[in-house]
Design goal:
This protein has 664 residues and is mainly beta. The protein folds into 5 domains: 203 residues, no CATH class; 149 residues, Periplasmic binding protein-like II (D-Maltodextrin-Binding Protein, domain 2); 79 residues, Immunoglobulins (Immunoglobulin-like); 90 residues, Immunoglobulin-like (Sandwich), CATH 2.60.40; 88 residues, Immunoglobulin-like (Sandwich). The protein contains 10 helices and 47 strands. The strands form 13 sheets. Strands 1, 4, 9, 10, 14, 15, 16, 17, 22 and 23 form a 10-stranded mixed beta sheet that branches. Strands 40, 42, 43, 45, 46 and 47 form a 6-stranded mixed beta sheet that branches. A hairpin with a 2-residue loop joins strand 42 and strand 43. The longest helix is centred in the first third of the chain and has 13 residues. The radius of gyration is 47 Å and the shape is rod-shaped. 44% of the residues are buried.
Length: 664
């Protein structure tokens, strides 16, 4: 059972005591008129006054310039009211940038988030009859969480509020959740003898959405007989006994303490007050407010209750507060985000002092962007927008010297266009080594200066809805090598050699194998020695020609493969021709001459001719490198002869030495 209790009479008295001498000058948009600041916010009227104060503007006659929150750069906040200051108009226009369009003032949390969505997409606000507001809004004030799923927006907790029930008439001093459900569904019309007249804030109100959820209803199950009024305005709404309306407790406190512009003290003076509510699990009612030194103050037990206590948020584009992204907005980050050692300007002691004045409770998680610490994620709040994220790109990787170059092609165009790519590199232990965002026009990125090891790279395309499916590359990062190969012209029949040297610039001696190919045919392999060199011997019977060779180093655990090309010329073999012939012979006989042709590494084939002078007198065909040729009968006298080897496809031609035969 909760320990903090106040009777309905005490509550009413507290309200009255807090409102006896209140003036009610109007609040204003950024002042003076025509003032423009970098960080533009719109939306919820629950937090508009405190944001106006934190922006450094005058609220209810009090100037807050000395406590204005700013980014490190000096950029300030411009907070525009949900309804027009002074007139109460809900259809007036605002202009948020110098030279920018004028557009309808967003009234309430939902409209604020819609305006933020359309500021990103460039669509017309509030609908096709409006104007494009691309780039005109930076954040939205919201008193409720996301209405759509997704990651486009981060809901950053700003403070703790609660939703109470403002009532008129003593019959409604104490209410239960069940009674509220039945009243607003239309099944309960009389409480303690009093006919009830329930009212609800306007459509799109964060307080409306939260309250209906708390009592187990939705807009669809809300009774059509419930009247709609402007959020957090008791004057006029609570005009008779039995009327009731959900109300921000923080706003009630700030208005009745004279901190915020007054839309409620007339009703409070006439008996309107916040009802005590029996919270689920309790056996007594808890009041939302108490009186401290003549002023209203929050009741912690009510604010922290899970049913009616609520966080209120500043909603920002998720990509704008991501320090690794190309859309990172340092000013927005400085003002709104607490992360690690970085404290949001809105979470400073001075800012929290202002927040407390306006009836809200400061929490330790104010400014957190961690969903585990009260932050929330949500999607664009614009109907008709494709909510899908991009498909995975087509990815490949090329390893370089302690580096990898990633190349990808854009995914097929579906839904919203790609705005950028997120590239992530992780090590073998799963730890993130680096993250890089690049524009949509970029389709490659190189990670360099990497330590040797196994890595995984991921690339995903992003649109306004968030990051899409991931494409993955994995590989071992190594050092590059350079390969140099040389050859010398080699005669057919001799063994050609390819001299190979593999080098590295990191002091690692290359080890491993080298392969020499001609086309797809392997001609030889070799193993590098301790200096990174090898001489690869090839076949001695490569055809006589100029050969184009590919030389490849297979790499090792530290070194990448490398390749080179080299030309090898195989020339014809150089033969030796020897002749054996008789010194003399009868002119009536035919001499026999034996010719032997030799060459290194091969047995010559082909034709041998015997010449006397320039005339061929006999021919023969080599067999096994030799041939015996029968000469014609020689006339008497001494004949000077020589043998000529015609040559072949693999052996050059060659003249033998002169020899003499004497014919008698």
């Amino acid at each position: 059972m909760r320990t903090t209790r106040l009777s309905a009479a005490m509550v009413a008295a507290a309200v009255v005591s807090g409102t006896l001498a209140l003036a009610s000058p109007a609040s204003a948009d950024p002042t003076p008129a025509g003032t423009f600041r970098k960080l533009v916010g719109v939306g919820s009227d629950t937090t508009q006054d405190v944001l106006n104060a934190l922006a450094g503007d005058t609220v209810n006659g009090k100037a807050y310039a000395d406590t204005a929150v700013k980014a490190v750069s000096g950029a300030g906040v411009a907070s525009y009211d949900a309804i027009e200051p002074g007139t109460g108009s809900t259809t007036s226009n605002i202009q948020t940038r110098t030279g920018g369009p004028t557009f309808q003032r967003p009234n309430g949390s939902g409209k604020g988030r819609l305006a933020l969505s359309m500021s990103l997409t460039g669509d017309k606000f509030p609908d096709s009859s409006g104007v494009s507001i691309k780039g005109q809004v930076d954040f939205a004030r919201s008193s409720s969480g996301p209405s759509t799923s997704g990651t486009a927006f981060t809901y950053i907790p700003f403070a703790r509020d609660a939703v109470g029930v403002a009532v008129h008439g003593s019959a409604l001093n104490t209410l239960t959740v069940d009674q509220l459900h039945d009243i607003y569904s239309g099944t309960l019309t009389v409480v303690n003898g009093q006919t009830v007249h329930p009212k609800i804030p306007q459509s799109g109100s964060g307080t409306r959405k939260f309250f209906l959820g708390a009592i187990g209803l939705t807009d669809a199950t809300l009774s059509p007989n419930v009247a709609t009024v402007q959020e957090n305005q008791a004057n006029g709404a609570l005009d008779a006994d039995g009327t009731l309306v959900p109300f921000s407790v923080g706003s009630w406190i700030a208005q009745n303490n004279g901190i915020s512009p007054d839309f409620s003290t007339t009703a409070a003076a006439a008996g309107a007050h916040l009802a005590a509510v029996q919270l689920p699990g309790d056996d007594g009612a808890t009041t939302p407010v108490t009186t401290v030194n003549g002023k209203l103050a929050p009741v912690g037990a009510y604010y922290e209750n899970a049913t009616f206590g609520r966080d209120v948020y500043n909603v920002v584009p998720t990509r704008a507060i991501d320090p690794t992204g190309i859309f990172f907005d340092k000013d927005l980050y400085d003002v709104f985000v607490t992360s690690g050692t970085h404290e949001a300007a809105l979470a400073s002691d001075a800012a929290e002092g202002v927040i407390a004045k306006f009836g809200f409770v400061n929490e330790s998680y104010n400014g957190s962007v961690n969903p585990a610490k009260h932050a929330k994620l949500g999607g664009l709040e614009e109907s008709g927008v494709d909510a899908s994220t991009p498909a995975a790109p087509s990815l490949s990787g090329t390893r370089g010297d302690a580096s990898v170059k990633l190349n990808w092609t854009a995914p097929s165009a579906t839904g919203l266009p790609v705005t950028d790519y997120r590239v992530t590199l992780t090590g073998s232990d799963g730890a993130v080594v680096a993250v890089k965002d690049v524009p949509a026009t970029t389709t490659s990125y190189t990670f360099s200066g990497l330590a040797l090891g196994h890595y995984t790279a991921e690339v995903s395309a992003a649109n306004l809805n968030g990051l899409g499916a991931v494409a993955t590359w994995t590989g071992d990062i190594k050092y590059t090598t350079a390969l140099k190969a040389t050859t010398a012209t080699t005669a057919y029949g001799k063994t050609p050699k390819v001299a190979v040297t593999v080098t590295d610039t990191h002091g690692v001696v290359p080890t491993g194998t080298v392969t020499v190919k001609e086309g797809t045919t392997t001609l030889g392999t070799g193993t590098l020695d301790s200096t990174g060199k090898v001489s690869v011997s090839l076949s001695s019977h490569l055809k006589v020609a100029k050969h184009s060779l590919t030389v490849s180093y297979a790499g090792n655990s530290k070194l990448l493969t490398s390749n080179g090309t080299v030309s090898l010329t195989v020339s014809k073999a150089a033969p030796a021709v020897t002749t054996t012939a008789p010194a003399s012979i009868s002119h009536l006989s035919q001499a026999k001459v034996t010719v032997k042709v030799t060459a290194t590494g091969t047995t010559p084939t082909g034709t041998v001719r015997i010449y006397e002078g320039s005339h061929v007198i006999a021919t023969g065909t080599l067999s096994g490198g030799k041939v015996t040729i029968k000469l014609p009968k020689l006339s008497r006298g001494t004949h000077t002869l020589h043998a000529w080897y015609v040559g072949s496809t693999t052996v050059n031609s060659k003249n033998g030495a002169n020899f003499k035969i004497k014919s008698t």
